[in-house]
Design a protein that fits this description.
With 301 residues, the chain is α/β, with parallel strands linked by helices. It has two domains: 145 residues, Rossmann fold; 112 residues, Orthogonal Bundle (Adenine-specific Methyltransferase, domain 2), CATH 1.10.1020. Strands 1, 2, 3, 4, 5, 6, 7 and 8 form an eight-stranded mixed β-sheet that branches. α2 packs across α6. The protein is globular and about 60 Å long. The structure holds S-adenosylmethionine. The site of S-adenosylmethionine (SAM) has 20 residues, from loops. S-adenosylmethionine (SAM) binds next to loops.
Length: 301
């Protein structure tokens, strides 16, 4: 596997881009099917070699976006042309091509000129997306790329509600898209939009496969952690025990300590498996030192 670590063009909150190098050293050499029940932006599968890929997320927009982008994997120019059209139509900044932001704006808003410049266009684009049955996935992708922290966020009525971010479509976004397309062509993943339990239940698993799980974390905060509770955590861990009984290999990421919080359910459960600290400044949970953020990878092989 090449050393270059690839990042998904979703720039997904909590993606494993920065940690994947450390994590994948614990993955088996030979993997038949690589299975991700919580795929998110996809920064993990992009950096793992296997014969087949089965990728799932409960968030229908995440999967719609993956499916949409994947359609252009063999013909990226077509997507870039669509993006160009929209960027020009809305009058958004376009660092991937040229710098159209006036000097005066840059002088007055030294650190926030992208947000200042794109604000109105962004609001218009967001309204158009919401008013057109939220079906245009190219538009949704642009809303993420130009949005605050590049998040995928909807309100209770189902409307996309992220404010503009201080970012734009730049050369880095183009590069990540091209890398994603290459991986899609190479790996032909199959996408699923189910709850992880139904997804795993529907697969024919073998001892040569690897299930990598990066679920929402019980003790940290993010949009997708809101719906995750102790019951979910226990059910997931019980399911992993069952997979272990069937000799199916799994690797799961989780956070054992975060500030004053401790994931006691997970800590107790993982004692019977292999626990690897992820992050160089990790402090073992077996000692009494102050624990800021301890991330681990747990494997059963
Ligand atoms: C920590 S993120 C995964 C990030 C991913 N590893 C990456 O690199 O982008 C967790 C994901 O689990 C998904 N999720 C939450 N509950 C789920 C469930 N019950 N079944 C399947 N996916 C779920 C969320 O939508 C979110 O995308």
């Amino acid at each position: 596997m090449s050393e270059k670590i690839l990042r998904s063009p979703f720039f997904y909150i909590g993606d494993k881009y920065k940690l994947i190098k450390e994590i994948r050293q614990y993955f088996p050499q030979e993997i038949d099917a690589f299975i991700e029940p919580f795929v998110g932006g996809g920064s993990v599968f992009m950096n793992v070699r296997a014969n087949e890929y089965y990728l799932n997320d409960i968030d229908s927009y995440v999967i719609k976006l993956h499916r949409h982008l994947s359609k252009y994997a063999n013909n990226p120019d077509k997507l870039f042309a669509l993006i160009d059209e929209l960027v020009y139509y809305y009058g958004l900044s376009r660092s991937y091509k040229e710098d159209i932001i006036p000097h005066e704006l840059k002088r007055v808003f030294k650190k926030t000129y992208f947000a200042q410049f794109n604000k109105e266009a962004y609001i218009k684009m967001r309204a158009d997306f919401n008013q057109s049955s939220r079906k245009n996935m190219t538009l949704l992708y642009l809303l993420i790329i130009y949005g605050f922290n590049r998040m995928l966020r909807f309100n209770k009525n189902g409307d996309f509600n992220l404010p503009v971010g201080n970012v734009d479509f730049n050369a880095n976004v183009v590069a990540t898209l091209n890398e994603y397309f290459e991986q899609i062509v190479l790996k032909h993943p199959t996408w699923y939009n189910k709850d992880y339990k139904a997804f795993i239940k529907g697969l024919k698993l073998s001892e040569r496969d690897l299930i990598y799980l990066d679920p929402p974390y019980l003790i940290t905060f993010s949009e997708y952690n809101k719906l995750w509770n102790e019951k979910n955590e226990k059910e997931l861990l019980a399911l992993l025990d069952k997979l272990n009984d069937k000799r199916i290999r799994f690797a799961i990421s989780n956070v054992t300590h975060y500030k004053e919080r401790e994931n006691t359910i997970f800590i107790k459960w993982c004692a019977r498996y292999n626990v690897y600290p992820i992050k160089s400044n990790y402090i073992s949970y077996h000692d009494n030192t102050i624990k800021e953020f301890n991330e681990v990878l747990v494997t059963n092989y």
